[in-house]
Model the fold of this input.
Amino acid sequence: MRHLADMPRWGDDVTDFASPARFARRPRLKAAVLGRSDESDLSPITASNGGIGPAERSLVYTVTGRILDVSPHILVLQTARGEQRFPLAASAEAWRGGSISPAALRPGDHAIVRRSLPGGPVVDRIWAEVGRVTGTIIERAGPARLLVDEGPAKGRRIVMIAPEATRRIQVRFPRLEPGYLVDVIGLKHDGFLKALIPATSQPPYRAGHAPAPPMVSGHIPDPVSGTAVWHEPGEEPESLLGLAYPALDPETSCEHGAFMPSSYAGDRHAVDPHAAGPGCVRLPYLSVGSLLRLRNDCTERTRLVPVTSCGATARLFCDRCVTCGTSRKGRIADLTMATFVELGGALEVGCFNATMMIGG
Amino acid sequence: MLTALREVQIPLLAVLLLGGCTVKARRALSPRPGTAGMGPTGLFLLRLRRPVMIIMFVTELSLGLGLAATAGRIGDVSVRVPATIVRTATALFFLIAVGALNEMRQRRPDSGCGCFGELSDTPIGLRTIARSVLLAASAVATIGVPPLRMPSSSAEAELWLAVLAFELALIAFLSPELGEILVRLGYSEPCELRRLPVGRTMSALYSSSQWRKYAAQLSTAEPVDVWREGCWRFVVYPGIMRGRRVDIVFAVYLQARRPAIRAAVLDADTDEVLGWAEARKSAVI
Done:
């Protein structure tokens, strides 16, 4: 547990979603004191994508909600705005543990849907009850049950490997043993995730022993390329446009000493990602509220995305994404599900090759 | 000349073995055990890597100390037999190293030799193997060398130094670690990656002209927000200016000495910028 009483009152409580105004205001204050606009600094990456407007700071492609009804042509969702009806495109696809017809989705399922056009009514992609567990294996009980630590902010999850996916997952994760990393996508169930798809290939090293990144002379290169992945909302709002950044300022953010849970001290296999080095990509220290411009290199879709939480677990993975070509090594952003879909990512794929402009 | 060449190998090998032993010991005893998997130890199972690395550095320590101890005479006692044993063992050690490096090059082409710890992360190439061959040949050359003595003339001392300098240059040429050492000597961590305590930022701020300019307008002693972006740390204080509620934002560049400091005054309700000031030359974020 975090000890809020122990931290300075200006420290970043990264779960402070109830009053995000302080974080949202930071870019304006920064622009005022440095005498420049965030957006003008992002021109190198926006050149091919046109300008940006206020609308770009909210979700335009993505809707999340609970399925109330579904037919071959219409999807009815209970969203934060109330009941909404979405016509389904003729080519609409759905995922619920595998590709299915949209009509086969079940009322009551939690769904995240993608519109064909920004702000348009027609939906062409639906994911239902999709979940993901990323972290260090703490326990293995039998051939199919894993207890996985997702880091101090998210805690521990139970993963049950579906029998039909065992071979597929073991090919990519040959060491399903305590102390090694795992990253799987599957169906959410009460109290556990039914793992169906390996989200990456298992790093060959034990958790916390990622190779050191190459040294950098002068300033950090900007933009930075690498892999963007997604995470389940947890305590965040489902439709939050944001990302968990792997390198928050250790002095004022989630790496602050007062946040460290004591459970890490006594558990032999648990790895505190904050103590595991910088990972294999060097990223500048930022804070919650910092604005980044992130581009999905596969779809060439770009969005201005605020840092909304701590993503130190991403530093444990020194992997590459091969969604379109081979990305550079290392995870540079851990997006909310909504942001991942907004940028054109397919949740069941798990990653996309990304470029991040940090000047914002 | 040939004698000088053979004699100079003994201290040279002793120093190289003790140097290699020190960095390997640091790595093997590091709290990050994964680092023990570098170099030839990577050929072994994970659980055997640390013991193998410990065996390697204990062997190097023993050989280095053995070479030094048996280099001359101990009083009037000849140490010919122990010297021969140690030097033969050293030659054997480097011959095994040649074989291991060749094997590593075939099986783990992306791995470094680990000869000098983290400095040896460059993939094993012919240069690295040639260096081990050179050191094995040097060790073979020391077998049968009589106990070392001080040079009897300045000409002999100069010959010693010339041979030593030539061999050091040759070893440097064959060592990929040299480039890494030069990079590290000239390396300065970018400001974006530098950890700097908030206390240092606040101390720099309190001693700045910007602080003195706005201190009278601040309405609290503690900042209401502090955050960092890249090379800058931002500090926000609430204040009152001409009867208006304002926020005074300071930006402090993250460097240890004489950081650039900027300040801006914003209307607390509308975020309209009311004033802006800069101290010292700023830098990029």
